[in-house]
Structures are given as structure tokens and as C-alpha cells.
Design a protein that fits this description.
With 159 residues, the chain is of the alpha+beta class. The protein contains 2 helices and 11 strands, in the order ααβββββββββββ. It has one domain: Immunoglobulin-like, CATH 2.60.40. β6 and β7 form a beta hairpin.
Length: 159
């Protein structure tokens, strides 16, 4: 858009007004979801930015859906599978998890505005996280020691 005789790439006052009105219309008709900015900031606010992001493998019908009391979610990345079972207990959740291949890996659950809680999976790859508060949640798995650590992060789930 340009004025006839104006510099290429410059908007006329009419074009600027039209774009401003279009922006207002979009805000009213299709605003961004509430909390979107906070969820994005939470998802990328990891201390160690050298992470592998797992992908959803299989989602049971009610897993991670608001209002459900229980569900199972499986995540995979290259050679690691993370399966979690969510159980709502009062106002919190219990996360029972399994890692394949099994090993004594560090497991952390991050919940937006609630910080994080850590545990270690047992030799069989099983871990339990009790009293996980509701909110935007990620599971972080730390494999190896500090000198050669690999970090895997699941996509966020809203509990």
C-alpha cells in the first residue's frame, strides 16, 4: 500500500486508520486466549535451554482435559518414553509415571505460579509426584550427571 506519488512502503493516513480499525475488530471478534502470554513464558522459561521437547504419543480421551479426574498421557522423544497417569485428589493431583528405558533419572514437575518439585525414578523407571497443584504443568526428565546431562521436557498440560 502506498500513496500515488508517495514513497514505497509508506502507508497513507487512510490506510493507517483502516489497519487500526481492523486491529480493533480482531481484538473484539477473536481475542487471544486468556493467559496465553503467561503460558508461553512458562513453557520457555527453563534454566537449561539445551532441552529436547517430547511429543504427544497417545492421549486417552480425557487425559489433561479440565474437569476430568483421571487420565493417561504418553510422550516420546528419540529413545525415551515418558508415560504419566494423572489422578485428581481433592484440589491437587497425583502423577504416577514410568520412563522407558528404565533408569534412576531425575524427574521434576513444573507448575506455573507454584514452582517445581523433584524426585528420582527408581531402577524400574517408576516415579510418583504427590500433591501437584492445578495449573499449567510440564514434566522435566534429567538423564545423566551434571557433566553429561540430557534434559527432556514434555509439552504443557493444564491440570
Amino acid at each position: 500500500m502506498k500513496d500515488i506519488g508517495g514513497a514505497p512502503g509508506q502507508l497513507s493516513p487512510d490506510d493507517q486508520m483502516l489497519l487500526a480499525e481492523f486491529g480493533l475488530l480482531l481484538e473484539q471478534v477473536d481475542p487471544p486466549p486468556g493467559g496465553l502470554v503467561e503460558r508461553v513464558q512458562f513453557a520457555i522459561a527453563l534454566e537449561d535451554l539445551d532441552v529436547e521437547v517430547a511429543r504427544w504419543e497417545r492421549v486417552d480421551a480425557l487425559a489433561g482435559v479440565r474437569g476430568s479426574d483421571q487420565g493417561t498421557i504418553t510422550f516420546t522423544v528419540s529413545d525415551l518414553t515418558v508415560m504419566i497417569n494423572l489422578t485428581k485428589i481433592g484440589k491437587t493431583h497425583r502423577i504416577d509415571g514410568w520412563l522407558v528405558p528404565a533408569g534412576e533419572y531425575g524427574v521434576e514437575v513444573r507448575v506455573a505460579e507454584h514452582g517445581s518439585t523433584s524426585t528420582t525414578a527408581d531402577v524400574g523407571g517408576r516415579f510418583v509426584l504427590d500433591e501437584v497443584p492445578c495449573g499449567t504443568t510440564q514434566i522435566v526428565v534429567h538423564i545423566g550427571d551434571a557433566a553429561c546431562r540430557r534434559t527432556v521436557v514434555t509439552p504443557t498440560v493444564v491440570l
